[in-house]
Amino acid sequence: MVTATATELTPCPNFINGEWTVPDVDAFNPVYNPSTGEQIAQAPMSGPDIVDQAVQAAADAFPDWWQTPPVERIRILFRYKMLLEDAFEELAMSVTREHGKTLQEARGDVRRGIEVVEYACAITELLKGECLENVARGIDCELQRQPVGICAGICPYNFPALVPMWMYPLAIACGNTFILKPSEKVPLTSVRLIQLLEQAGLPKGVLNIVHGGRECVDAILTHPQINAISFVGSSPVAKYIFEKGTQHGKRVQAAGGAKNFVVVMPDAEIPKAVDGMVDSAFGCAGQRCMAGSTAITVGKAADQFLPDMAKAAQSIQVGPTDRTPAGQMGAVISPDHLNRVRNLIEKGKEEGADLLVDGRSVKVQDYPNGFYLGPTIIDKVQPEMTVHKEELFGPVLNVIRADDLHHALEVANACSFGNGCCIYTRSGQVAREFKHHVKAGMIGINVGIPAPLAYFPFSGWDYSFFGDLHIQGREAIYFYTRAKVTTTRWFHHAEGDIWHKD
């Protein structure tokens, strides 16, 4: 492993009460450029004392920020949106450098995040309450939405720009203050995002960044002054976040992992299905919770789909994404994750699946230390196999063969996850039957990645989500606010006036 010297590492400071500082801590987590294997930064492993400093800063800032008119909050977000646009390519390159995804994928990461900021700029409309006159004679009732207080966001590594922007723009637009805990594997993009927000004029203490690992997360989950927590990551951790957070009286939304199925019917437009499947399974090197990680081929669909899919997978150029010309698919995030996915592929083979395409032998000339794994297709997967039960989170496509649509639905609905499911077909009847009966929160009809835009919720089900109100859309507004209902009656002149004299 090639490791940079300490003097070459990019600084990774915390941001607390308007001050950027690298804390004096005992441990740091290495941040790699996955394309080269080089260490480019180190994230400080902040502990409970530093979390508490951020909470106190957020608590001090909350009263004034809550009373700041929403239209003034919007003006800051409008300025922020323009600064994000000006820094668009810089941010995309930052994502590529620390995550390893291609520049095109990184641009999509940043663009989808900016769309959430745009949605947050409509907060004066989104925060409007409700009112009804004469709920009883002479009595009116109104509902207002008020911020919950101090919120925190705990982020994964796979979308360094989008996932943080899923959280803090809407939270602060609603009048909350916020503590952001980026992934310690990809902290640099978050630092730059908040530098731009500071430049847009956000008052100090409204948003704070604390870097760290599990100790930092546990401090957030148990701190008595934090009111709400947003999390995105693996399902086992999401379950832990939800249970520990709610045990400590917090509102929690915890988005977990997935096993997303893509059903290919015999009448599907096979070239379109292959194109969609390549992007869904191998885009971002498979490191996303909306990846189409399992293709269910129905009947004779396998006869044409699998040869074309194998050919397409083998033609993908794997290589460094921060160089020109760049590879069509980049590396995975770390050497540990690379070994994990490689071992799961071997486990699938040992349990009886067929390796239609084996990407473990891929070599990238001039970059032997990069964390590369080529596109892999595992055919004839069975439900009892490890590769079917676990989220691989790599460029690996499982293939399950089904007799008919009913069989395909049985396979998909037996899975404990419930993020996304897609189908490729020309039949409206089949599509409706699939949409109506499949158990998942996000559905694609001839769409391989059915991730919703900012104004719809990211609506995972079952083991893919823990909580009540989802990320994005109006559900996010409801999550970051509390409803206050006021019932009012005004007496007639002198009615009830104890000082009135006849």
Feature tags:
38% helix, 2 domains, disordered N terminus, 7-stranded mixed β-sheet, alpha/beta, 6-stranded mixed β-sheet, Aldehyde Dehydrogenase, Chain A, domain 1, 16 helices
Structure overview:
Mean pLDDT is 95; it is low at 1-7. A hairpin with a 2-residue loop joins strand 1 (14-16) and strand 2 (19-21). The chain has helices spanning 48-67, 70-86, 88-99, 103-120, 123-126, 162-173, 188-199, 214-222, 235-247, 270-282, 301-314, 335-350, 386-389, 405-413, 428-437, 473-479; strands spanning 14-16, 19-21, 28-33, 38-44, 130-136, 139-147, 150-154, 177-181, 207-209, 228-232, 251-255, 261-264, 294-298, 354-357, 376-379, 396-402, 417-418, 420-424, 442-445, 461-462, 465-466, 481-489. It contains 16 helices and 22 strands. With 502 residues, it is of the alpha/beta class. The protein has 2 domains: 45-256 and 464-486, Aldehyde Dehydrogenase, Chain A, domain 1; 261-445, Aldehyde Dehydrogenase, Chain A, domain 2, CATH 3.40.309.10. 38% of the residues lie in helices and 21% in strands. The N and C termini lie far apart (94 Å). The strands form 6 sheets. The chain has a 7-stranded mixed β-sheet with strand order 14-15-16-13-12-18-19, with helices on both faces. Helix 2 packs across helix 7 (188-199).
